[in-house]
Each structure stands twice: as C-alpha cells, then as structure tokens.
Amino acid sequence: MKGKMAGSSIANGRMAARAFTAIVGGYAAAAGFVSLLARIAPVDRAEATIWAMTLSFLVYAGLLLWAFHETRLARVAVAIWGLAFGTVGILWLLGPAL
Amino acid sequence: MSKVASNEAPGVRQSMAWIHGWLGLLAGWILFAMFLTGTASYFRPEITRWMQPEIDLHPVAPATAADTAVAHLQKVAPTAEQWFITLPDARTTATRIFIRERPNPDPNAKPAPRRAELRLDPATGEEVTARDTRGGEHFYRFHFQLQIPHPWGRWLAGLCAMAMLAAIISGVITHKRIFVDFFTLRWSKGQRSWLDAHNVSAVIALPFHAMITYTGLITLVAMYMPWPIEANYKDPATFETAVFGAEPDGEATGLPAALTPVAPLIARASEEWGGGRPATMVVRNPNDATATITLFQSAKDRLNARGGSIVFSGVDGRRLSASPPPGPAAETSGVMLGLHMGSFAGPVLRWTYFLLGLAGTAMVGTGLMLWTVKRKRPGAEPFFGIRLAERLNVGAIACLPAGMAAFLLANRLLPATLPARGDVEVSIMFWTWFGLAALACVRPIRRAWTETLAIAAVAFVALPLVNALTTDRGFVRSFANGDWLFVAFDLAMLATGALLGFGAWRAAQISSHPARKPRAAARPANPLREAVDAR
Amino acid sequence: MRVEPALLSYAALACLALSTHRLRRDVAVERLPTVATLRTFAVVLLVLAAWRAVHDFGPYQGPVAFIGMVSIAGLPLVLLLSRWPRGTLVTGLATAAVALGMLIPLG
After folding, report:
1. Considering its fold, how many domains does chain A have in total?
2. Distance (Å, rounded) from C-alpha B287 to C-alpha B82?
3. Do the strands B118-120 and B309-313 form a parallel or antiparallel pair, or are they unpaired?
C-alpha cells in the first residue's frame, strides 16, 4: 500500500487507473451484474428488478473496496472490466424481457 | 482474538485503513454538510412553521381540509388539467395546493408559466399569505441537491453517499476492538482524543449510520441505478405501472359533469387502508365527464413510505382501480425509504433520529479532524495539502452552522415585502458560510477555529432574542401560551449555541496550551500503522 | 413520554461499562458486583428495554425505537465516563430505579 503513495508519475498513473477502474468500472460492473441477475432471476419481473436495484449498492461497495485492496492492478482491471463488459454483453444479446 | 484475525488476513486492515482515510477525507466535507442539513430536515415542517410565524393554523380532519381545498379550487381554476392537494396533518398545518393548467393547443404559443404552490387555511379554504421563505424545505433540498444544478447535485450527493458506505464497511474492517472502544473517550490528548471521539461517535450509532447511508442511496435509486429496469422492460413506464399502479391519463372530453363530493371518497379510502389516512389527492380533468380523483396513502403512520393509491371516478365516485399490493421487494424498498425519511416518527422517535443524525455529523467531523491532526508533525511547517484540509475543516465544521444560523436570522431581519425574499435568505446563508470560511483562511489556524466557532455560537444564541424582538411569539409568550414548537425551537437554538460556544472555548484552550500537542506528535511516523494499531 | 426504553438502555450500558476491566479500576468501589452479575443485569435490562419499545411503539416501529435508543443512551454515558467514571454507577442505578419505577404502574 505504501508504494501507492509514492510520488513518481508511474505510481500516480497506476493510482489514477485504479481509481478509474474502481469508481467507473466498479459502477458499470455492479450495474451490469445486478441487471443480469434481474433479467434472469426466475421470479416476478418487477420484484426481481427492485431486488436488483436495492442490492446494487452493496455490490458496488464491495467491488470498490476490493479494487483498492487487491495489489495487482492488472487483476483488478481484468476482473472489473471483464465483469462489466461480460454482463452488459450478455444483456445486450438477451434484450429486454418485456 | 483480534491477533488471530489479523494473522489470518494480513494486509486487509492496512488496505482498508488506507481507503477509509482517503474516502473519508475526499467526501468528508460534503458528507458533513449532508449529515448536518439532513439532521435538521427531520424538523422540516417545524422549521417552516418557525420561519412563517404569522401563520398559526389549527389542524382539522382530512375530509374538511379536502372539502375546503376543492371549494377554493372550484373558484380559481375550475377548468385546470390537474389539481394537486396535499392535505394537512399535525405537523404541516396548512393545506398545500398546486394547479397544472391545460397545455395550450396552439403549438406556437408560449407555455403558460408554472403556477406556484399555494397554501390554504384548512378550516376556511382561504389562501394563507406570509413572508416568502423556503423554510425547512431549503435544508432538505440542500441535503441531497447541494445547491448544484440538476442533475449534478444529486449525482455528487450520491457519489459521496457511496463513499460513505464504503468508508463504513472499511472502517468496521479496520477497527479491532469495537466493544471496548464503545466506552473510551479521553480528553486533551491530541490525536488520541480525536480517534476516541471518532470511534465512539461511529460505533455507538453504527446501525443508524449504516442504515441512513444505504437508505439514502435507495431514495434516489431510480436515478442512480435504473439499469435493472432497462434490462427487463422496453418501456420504463411498464415497470412503474406494475409496481405503483396505472395513473389516470385520459384527455378531457369537454362534456361538463359536476365533481363528486370528496369527503365520502376519503372515508372509503381510509376504510380500505385499515384506518390509514390520505396524504395527497390528485384531481384530473375536474368538472369533466372523464374526471378522476386519486388518493395517495400517508406514510405518517407506517414504516413503508410508499403508500398505496386508489383511483375514483370524479363524476359518480366509483372506485376505478388501485395500486397493486407491494411484493416483498417493493415492501423492503418502501420500508428503507421510510426509515430514511423518518416521517412515521412521533416526537420521541423524531428526537431520537435527530440525535442520531448529530452523532453521524460528529462522526464525519471528528474523522476530518483526525485526518489533519494525525499528519501534522511538531515544529515542521505542514505541507500544502494538510493546510488546505485544515481550512476546509474550519469551513465545513464551524462555518456551515454559522451559515445556517444566518439563514434563520435573515428570516427574521429581512423586510417581509422584500422582492424574492426567499432567495435572498438562501443567498445570505451561502454568503455567510463561504465568506466566513474565506475570512478564516487569513487567520492563524487555531484562532480561526476559536473565532468562527464563537461567531456561530453568538449567531445561534441571538436567534431567540431576535425572534422575541421581531415577532409576537417570543419565548415568554410562547411558554405562557403553550406554543411548544416555538419554545422548543428557542431551546434548541440555545443548546446549539452552547455546544458551538463550548467548541470555541476548547479551541481557545488548546491554542493557549500548545505544550499539549507533542503528546500527539510522539506517535509513530507512519500514519498507516497508526490507524491500524491505534491502540 | 415513552422514554423508558432509553432509560433502561442507559442502565444496561452502564452495567456493561462497569463490567470492563478499565472502568472497574477507575471506579475503585469495593464490593462492586461481579462481572458476570453485571452482564446478566445488562442483558435483563436490554430485554426489558426491547419489550418496552415494542410495547410502546408497536411491532414495526418498536425495533427501530429500541436500536435508536440504545445508541442514543450511549452518548451521555460515554461523556460521563470520560469525566467522572464513578458517575456511571450513580446515574446507572438512578436511571434503572426511575425506569423500573415507571414500569410498575403499567405492568
């Protein structure tokens, strides 16, 4: 963790990439993940939608914290952007249910 | 036990302490303002009533208020497209009405100017006039819109709330000895005191902090996280209809038909809701053959803030439709909304909410203080970031209360007929807040604390005096008349002034005994380790 | 006034505080009840507070009131502990007496 606070421009760039991945990528991944759950959950559409919306912030918070905890930036980036693009891609293929 | 846990997961506490510190700092100043104004908003109707002392109405039954409001609207806007009537209750004593005019059929015509919300005496239906003010609504709106143009204020508030949620989770993971720290508060020990105060205010009301942060995000979930709706529905309106029921949207036919009396509808709705009362009544196409009357259930007596609604025919009073009963998810999110707003709370619970909100404000404030105190080294000139953070701390913690007091003082001191009076009050709050914060920047930091806190304290103590001099509802008369709202308001202002005065006194003490500081500074140099092994 | 849950919670938290090692040393009163006794008192008082909260505020608002009031009761207790540790004993006993007294006529 101490390395993150070092003043070099590489460290700053890595920190910026990590923060962007955590905040923007984390939001996209959380949104995609809960939306996919809402889309495929075998319960009433409206209920599934509300559960997904209600729980989304917990997912986002978890991803956000993990993105800063995991030291390997590449792993963070692959996991979060992978989850984001993967879930959004599946949703795009599925299309809206109603 | 904590030893074992830290051996099992090396690094988790360190990384969580690190992220906790930065999230708390970056969002802290805005979160402080959100917590403080949100806490004040638990008394939103009471603040509005205090800010319009010339209005002193007495509550009546909802059916009476609805009748008088409809009679008034029949006089002033019999052919409007919609009437919105918010019925009074024990806390908001006036009936509020809003008229939506029919759009001009000529597409080239300018849209009619939006009519302002009006307030009526529920007993007579007469329009109530008083000094123009935003009242408690101002603190409420600022709490989640931050006086920043839509939608950016709400997005910024949401981002800060998200930071708060992550800070709470990381703070709990960082923290080893929650139950011992519950009882530990040591004074005059510099950094250790701030850490104690931060731990105590955070741990003691942890269920409230976690609840209020999460439910705060839920209040605007449709804006922050609409994607599950997009994933399931081609048209979001389908989702709204499925959850909240269909809202009548028929066009007027132009065939006149007398509007059915509303009092019997209120009685029927109340019976259907098992004694629940209506809060809002929407009349669409009044005096037309297609007229409908929708009643929305009040959240004042239930945890779920989203009450049901029933649509009646406005011609013969037939029950046309009702919102579907909520499923478990809809019920859960409605209860979360209700827990955040606390509108179900009676006086005792409302004060409990208020004090818990103050504990949250204290948690954010002490966290901000801890961040700067921890990083200052004795004898060394603090680097720019720390000095900036110190100044922003003064600006948030001492100057925002001063601004809020100025808002209330302006309400009493500005002439009642001043044009755009309500807006002037709001500007006075921000000029005082930011002006004082700017002035404090040119003073030595310790002096800045003492002086700004003292100014805020004086402003709050002045409020009861100014109120007594400028209205006929001063403390003595209010006490004699049993006007407990005004009595309690004066006492609350005095208590706030005393608290800020105590802060000013402590700040003065610390600045005149700088010898106490080195105790704090004798801590290890690595701020990370400190947060982790705080004891 | 329906504040019994808060008073009972205060007394319960005072018992818990008196069962901590540091406070037992600071209070320095002989024949303080044992840690186990104080913890039992605390649990009993908390159960009473929860029951009063549900009784006064109903099954839905009751839990909200109980959690909120336990939290709120902690604030004055911690402030008192930081200045006058023995005050915990005195005020804890006093609030317990007042709150239990308020319970009697109501059953």
Report:
1. 1
2. 11
3. unpaired
- C-beta of residue B338 within 8 angstroms of C-beta of residue B302: yes
For residues B46 and B142, membership in a common domain is answered with yes
What are the chain B neighbours of A25 within 8 Å (beta carbons)? Answer: none
pLDDT at B100 over 70: yes
Categorise residue B147: left if φ over 0, alpha if ψ from -120 to 50, beta otherwise.
left
Q: Which residue has the higher pLDDT, C101 or B415?
A: B415
Q: Are residues B308 and B436 in the same domain?
A: no
Q: Does B336 touch chain A (CB under 8 A)?
A: yes
Q: Are residues B412 and B298 in the same domain?
A: no
Q: How confident is the model at residue B513 (pLDDT cuts 50, 70, 90)?
A: low
Q: Are residues B211 and B311 located together in one domain of the fold?
A: no
* Chain B neighbors of C69, CB-CB under 8 A: 352
Pick from A68, A70, A87 the residue to mutate for testing the B interface (most B CBs within 10 Å): A68
Where does the pLDDT of residue B153 fall: very low under 50, low under 70, confident under 90, or very high at 90 and above? very high
Q: Give the tokens for residue B51.
A: 């800010």
Is B239–A49 a contact, with Cβ atoms under 8 angstroms apart? yes
Domain housing A60? 23-92
Same domain, B296 and B262: yes
Query: Concatenated DSSP letters for C30-99?
Result: TTPPPHHHHHHHHHHHHHHHHHHHHHHHHHHHHHHHHHHHHHHHHHHHHHHHHH-THHHHHHHHHHHHHH
Judge whether B225 lies within some domain.
Answer: no
- Is the pLDDT score of B157 beyond 80? yes
When CB atoms are compared, the residue of B182, B205, B352 closest to C65 is B352
Tens of pLDDT, residue by residue over B121-146, are 999 999 998 999 999 999 999 999 99
The 8 Å CB, 24+ separation contacts for C25-33 are C26/C85, C26/C86, C27/C85, C27/C86, C27/C88, C27/C89, C29/C86, C29/C89, C32/C89
**Contacts of the segment B501-505: beta carbons below 8 A, 24+ positions apart:** B501/B453, B501/B454, B501/B457, B501/B461, B503/B398, B503/B449, B503/B453, B503/B457, B504/B449, B504/B450, B504/B451, B504/B453, B504/B454, B504/B457
Lowest mean pLDDT among B26-30, B240-244, B366-370, B448-452: B240-244
Domain-terminating residue out of B289, B323, B357: B323
| Chain B residue closest in CA terms to A71 | B15
Share of chain C above pLDDT 70, in %: 96
Name the closest residue on chain A to residue B228, using Cα atoms.
A35
Same domain, B435 and B343: yes
The confidence score (pLDDT) of residue B514 equals 52
Subunit contact A98:B222, Cβ cutoff 8 A: no
Cβ of C79 and B356 within 8 Å?
A: no
What pLDDT band is residue C1 in, cutting at 50, 70 and 90? low
pLDDT tier at B519, thresholds 50, 70, 90 = very low
Cα atoms in the Cβ-side hemisphere of radius 13 Å centred on B506: 12
Looking at the structure, tell me whether residues B378 and B516 fall in a common domain: yes
pLDDT band at B177 (very low <50, low <70, confident <90, very high): confident
Q: Report ipTM (2 d.p.).
A: 0.94
Considering chain A, what is the average pLDDT of its residues?
A: 91
3-state helix, strand, coil in chain A (%, to 5): 85, 0, 15
pLDDT at site C69: 96
CB contact under 8 A, C57 and B339: no
How many domains is chain B partitioned into structurally? 2
**What domain range includes position B355?**
2-54+136-220+339-532
Is there a single domain that holds both residue B40 and residue B97?
no
Model confidence band, residue C30 (pLDDT cutoffs 50, 70, 90) = confident
How many Cβ pairs closer than 8 A exist between chain B and C?
A: 65
Chain C residues touching B302 at Cβ < 8 A: 60
Contact A35, A93 (CB under 8 A): no
